[in-house]
Design a protein that fits this description.
The protein has a single domain, classed as Beta-grasp domain (Ubiquitin-like (UB roll)), CATH 3.10.20. Helices cover 33% and strands 24% of the residues. It contains three helices and five strands. Strands 2-1-5-3-4 form a five-stranded mixed sheet. The longest helix has 21 residues. It starts with a helix and ends in a 6-residue tail after the last strand.
């Protein structure tokens, strides 16, 4: 009876371990290119960031605000561009994507 209980307990631990492995958070690695106005404020004109799977453009901007504090004041007005198309802040990011961050320009 005790041996059966031990086997059951061990089986439960194995099931929990397997479930924990399945629930590990995957990461997406993205490359960020900063437009001319932004690149002067950063440590580099191109950055590579690793974010949790399911991260959005908004999450990327929040991470940049933390990791590159000189960029923080400009980030609310940047135009994120992915594949030549303006990306909404709620758009999910994919692994190996490149995101350009541009400052809006007004002419006259």
């Amino acid at each position: 009876m005790v041996a059966a209980a031990r086997r059951s307990a061990v089986g439960s631990v194995d099931a929990v371990s397997a479930a924990g492995r399945r629930e590990r958070v995957r990461a997406v690695r993205v490359r960020v290119r900063l437009g001319a106005g932004l690149s002067r404020l950063s440590s580099s004109p191109a950055l590579t960031l690793e974010l949790d799977d399911g991260a959005t453009v908004g999450d990327l901007l929040a991470r940049l605000s933390d990791s590159e504090p000189d960029l923080a004041p400009a980030l609310p007005s940047v135009l994120p561009v992915i594949g030549g198309v303006h990306a909404a802040r709620r758009q999910p990011l994919e692994d190996a994507q490149e995101i350009a961050l541009l400052l809006p320009v007004s002419g006259g």
